[in-house]
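Apologies for my clumsy wording, but could you write out the amino acids of a protein and the tokens describing how it folds?
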Amino acid sequence: MGTGSRNLWDSKPPCVISVRFVALLSTFFLVTGALLVGDALHGSVVTGQYPATSPAAVVRAVAGLVCIALGYRFQTPPDEYTSVPSAESAESSSDEGGSDFDSELSPLSDEQFEDLDADEEK
């Protein structure tokens, strides 16, 4: 067994997980943790429904802190997330006229287009 100890928090997961999915997990855990901690504070301090040391407040606060820790664990660096090509850019680059503007699909009328062009020239 003696190949050295692996630190769980510094290693990447052994399976391949999408960068976007990891970012989704991070956001989910951070928001859930903030809601749980906020609910614990609201119920115990603001409204006084239960004491601050009651099991209801403590369980919510501890679960919220665990969720926040997991959210920070799964946090994705912005440079890693932005380097992933989006599906929309792949579709538009594969089309022949991906950058062409189609006025038929636009909700603006001809008069509104003229106003927009006049504003751009100013």
Notes: Residues 10-85 form one domain. The mean pLDDT is 78.
